[in-house]
Design brief:
The chain is mostly beta strands and 440 residues long. It has three domains: 175 residues, Sandwich (Immunoglobulin-like), CATH 2.60.40.10; 103 residues, Immunoglobulin-like (Sandwich), CATH 2.60.40.10; 130 residues, Immunoglobulin-like, CATH 2.60.40. The chain contains one helix and 36 strands. The strands form seven sheets. Strands 3, 4, 6, 7, 8, 10 and 11 form a seven-stranded antiparallel β-sheet that branches. Strands 23, 24, 30, 31, 34, 35 and 36 form a seven-stranded mixed β-sheet that branches. Strands 22, 25, 26, 27, 32 and 33 form a six-stranded antiparallel β-sheet that branches. A hairpin with a 2-residue loop joins β15 and β16. The longest helix has 6 residues. The radius of gyration is 29 Å and the shape is elongated. The protein starts with 16 loop residues before the first helix and ends with a strand.
């Protein structure tokens, strides 16, 4: 998240130009007014008299935190006549304010420093070093009137450490190029760990295959979990994939299927999508979702060797339509239903079909990692289009997380129209509601 800064009389500015340039990248550390840091604030350098004159104000906004989950911090500074703006903020444990609480995640728009004395050191900071975030000179927005708001991210400690206190100071400057006539304001905000809300709840029958909503879970199969109070945010794994690892915690949510952690693809209050972990077990297994408010009820689902489902993201008239790819890269499907497609598939044409949950591969690959190579299915499924079994080379391959590929040839005898496409893998049939559009 970008951090915007109003133009501040850059740090604790001294009266002469040399000192002005010396603090042009932000004030020294420990100027937030925190008692543990000696109650220091920017009046030490700005000849303003007493801080907090009542004309302007600085405020901090944030929500209860979930351990280890990034959240937004907002600093707002207002003054009726000031024309340049700046701030400094730090986060401390309420139980011991001498200790840092979490880690700031600044962008290039701001300065990230550590230490209690002097000007600190440039980020990255040591693991236990107290952190401060402040403005940079180019981002102090000279000439802006009324006030300014900065937004940035903060990652809480990975465990519940009790209350966290943010201390902040703001400088509402008159932008006269000197250290006189500025107004300094300080504030603090205490936030608590989340956990006082209702526990997550999975509705009865609320764990289904995610593409076509049939029952059952399987290795490398996407599953959708439905319920209430599942997550306090809406996120996908796009920004949480790191070093080839898929996240098993996203937005403070984790899921275990048969007591094995699942990779989390999407979270929201009422739906969470996961990629089921690799597991040889079959039969009844439990699904438990956990967030900051505790564990959900355990939902029993069938775990099968395969739960085949074609990638069919759009529907019309109670039919789901696959999106496929021609060998020249053209997207194929139901024109007018999926805006990305350019035409239907053609009889006799070889196309690439995609799906989830088609079963075990050789070699076995974990479901919480980016797929390397294209491991082949151990057992070849049967695929039918319009009731005709189609031909394809090999057994099919796992080409990405939860995504299998089959290069199939559309039967040359098929008439123009929409035809059911089904699969049978390891004794389990796919949904009979999926169709492929064909035209000459």
């Amino acid at each position: 998240m970008g951090m915007r800064f109003s133009r501040y009389a850059a740090g604790c500015l001294a009266a002469v130009p040399v000192m002005l340039m010396g603090f042009s990248t932000g004030p020294p550390v420990a100027r937030t007014g925190a008692a543990i840091d000696g109650n220091q604030n920017c009046t030490a350098c700005h000849r303003t008299g007493t801080a907090n004159d009542g004309v302007g104000r600085v405020g901090i906004t944030s929500a209860a935190y979930t351990p280890g989950v990034k959240q937004k911090i907002t600093i707002e500074l207002t003054h009726p006549t000031a024309m340049r703006w700046g701030f400094e903020v730090t986060a401390r444990l309420a139980s011991d304010p001498s200790q840092k609480a979490g880690t700031f995640n600044p962008t290039s728009d701001l300065r990230h420093v550590c230490g209690i004395t002097g000007n600190g050191t440039a980020a990255p900071c040591a693991a236990t070093a107290v952190e401060f975030v402040t403005h940079t000179q180019p981002a102090t927005f000279a000439g802006t009137s009324g006030g300014h708001t900065w937004e940035f991210e903060w990652t809480p400690p990975s465990t519940n450490v009790g209350d966290v206190v943010f201390f902040a100071a703001g400088n509402a400057s008159n932008n006269n190029g000197a250290n006189s006539g500025d107004s300094i304001y300080t504030t603090s905000l205490t936030i608590s760990p989340a956990g006082s809300g209702p526990r997550p709840s999975i509705v009865t029958g609320g764990v289904l295959e995610a593409f076509t909503a049939i029952s059952g879970v399987t290795s490398h199969g996407f599953a959708a979990i439905y319920g209430s109070n599942l997550a306090g945010t809406v996120e996908t794994w796009d920004n949480a994939i790191s070093g080839g690892a898929l996240p098993t915690v996203l937005g403070g949510v984790s899921v275990k299927i048969n007591n094995k952690p699942a990779a989390i693809h999407f979270v929201s209050a009422n739906q969470v999508n996961v990629l089921s972990p690799v597991d040889d077990a079959t039969g009844d297994v439990s699904v438990v979702l956990t967030n900051a408010n505790g564990d959900s009820n355990a939902m029993t689902v069938k775990r099968l060797a395969a739960v085949p489902a074609f990638y069919a993201p759009f529907g019309q008239n109670n039919r789901l339509f696959v999106t496929a790819v021609a060998l020249d890269g053209t997207l194929l499907g139901k024109v007018g239903v999926d805006s990305r497609v350019r035409r239907p598939a053609r009889p006799g044409e070889t196309i690439q079909l995609f799906g989830s949950g088609f079963g075990a591969t050789n070699p076995v690959v974990p479901a919480d990692r980016i797929v390397s190579g294209s491991p082949a299915l151990v057992r070849k499924p049967t695929i039918q289009i319009g009731g005709t079994t189609v031909d394809f080379g090999g057994n099919g391959n796992l080409i990405a997380a939860g995504l299998y590929q089959f290069n199939v040839t559309i039967p040359a005898s098929l008439a123009d129209g929409d035809h059911a496409i089904t699969a049978m893998a390891d004794g389990t049939a796919s949904a009979n509601t999926v169709f492929i559009s064909v035209a000459r």
